[in-house]
Amino acid sequence: MRKPLMAGNWKMNFNHLEAIHLVQKLAFTFTDDDYNTVDIAVLPPFTSIRSVETLIHGDGLKLQFGSQDISAFESGAYTGEISGVMLAKLGCHYSVVGHSERRLFHGETNEIVSKKARAALSHSITPIICVGESLEVREAGNHVSYTLDQVEKSLEGLSAENVAAIVIAYEPVWAIGTGKVATAQDAEEVASGIRKWISNRFTTKIGEQTRILYGGSVKASNIAEIMAGPNVDGALIGGASLDPDEFVAICRFRLH
Ligand code: 13P
Fold first, then answer.
1. Distance between CA atoms of 233 and 183, rounded to whole angstroms?
2. Ligand 1 center–CA 219 separation, angstroms
3. Phi and psi dihedrals of 167, rounded to 5?
4. How do residues 125-146 score in pLDDT, each as one tens digit?
5. Could you read off the pLDDT of 104-127 as tens digits, one per residue?
6. Centroid of ligand 1 to alpha carbon of 13 (angstroms)
7. What's the CA dihedral at 192, 193, 196, 197 to 10 degrees?
8. Binning pLDDT at 50, 70 and 90, where does residue 181 land?
9. CB 106: neighbour CB atoms within 10 A?
10. Half-sphere CA count of 31, side-chain side, radius 13 A
11. CA-based, 20 to 30 A from 157: which of 91, 148, 207, 255?
12. 136-148 burial code (b ≥16 CB/10 A, e <16)
C-alpha cells in the first residue's frame, strides 16, 4: 500500500535560523509512530536546506526534506539556478517541480516541468510534480481534462519505473492560499482521474504505486476529510506548514 506523504512547502518564508527553530519543534514532537505511518517532509527555501540537513542528519531524525525547485540543467552558466547534483549532495529526498506559482510567475511550461522532473530522477530525487487548474477552467467544468493534459505533458519522457516513483500533487490554483479548500470529492475526483490515466498509459500496477497528493488551503480541520478519498495519498501544505502545531496535527490526521 502507498504510504501517505505530508510535505510542508514553506514557500519563501523563514531564514535559516527560523528554519532550524521550526525543525527543532517538529523533531521534539514527532514520534516513531508518526514516522512509521506517514512520510513527513519539509521543503524550505534553498538558503535553509543546508541548516535543515545538518540538524536532521546530525540528530538522526526521520524527517525528510527537499527543495521547492530544481534546475533542468546539470551545471554551467545558468545564473541563479541550483542543480540536481547539488541537491542530491545535500541529501534532498524531494524536489517540487512545476508549482503553480512557478508556472505563473516564472513562465514554467509543461516541457520545462518534465525536464526538471527528469533532472530530479537522474539524481535519485523524487520529483513532486504539481498540476491543477485555474478558477476559470474549473468554472467551465474542464478541470479533469485540463489537469490530465498537464499530467501527460509534465510526465513526457518518464519511464514506467520513473512514474511509479514520482509524487503528483493536485493543487487547484483557486484553492492555494485563498482559504477556499476544494471539497474532499473535488480532490478525489481529480486524484482518481490521474490514477486512471497512469494505469491506462502504463499499467494498473504502476497506477497503484504513484502517490497523489492534494494541495490548497489544507489545515488540521479539513485534512481528515480530504484523506478519506481512496486516491488521495497525502498533502502538499503551504501556509499551515509554517505553524508547527498545525503541521503536526495535519500529519496526525488519523487521530482526528
Ligand atoms: P496553501 O496551503 O497555503 O494554500 O498552499 C498550498 C500550496 O501551494 C502548497 O504547495
1. 15
2. 10
3. -120, 135
4. 999 999 999 999 999 999 999 9
5. 999 999 999 999 999 999 999 999
6. 13
7. -150
8. confident
9. 10
10. 3
11. 91
12. ebbeeeebbebbb
Distance CA 246, CA 221 (A): 9
H or E element, residue 215:
strand 211-215
For residue 1, the model assigns a pLDDT of: 84
* Whether 151 contacts 130, CB under 8 Å: no
- Which pTM does this prediction carry? 0.98
Residue 99 appears among annotated catalytic residues: yes
Please provide residue 219's backbone torsions phi and psi, each rounded to the nearest 5 degrees: -140, 170
Strands 94-97, 167-170: pairing kind: unpaired
The alpha carbon of 220 and the centre of ligand 1 are apart by a number of angstroms equal to: 13
Q: What is the number of alpha carbons within 13 Å of residue 133 lying toward its C-beta?
A: 20
Q: Specify the residue with its C-alpha closest to ligand 1, atom 2.
A: 238
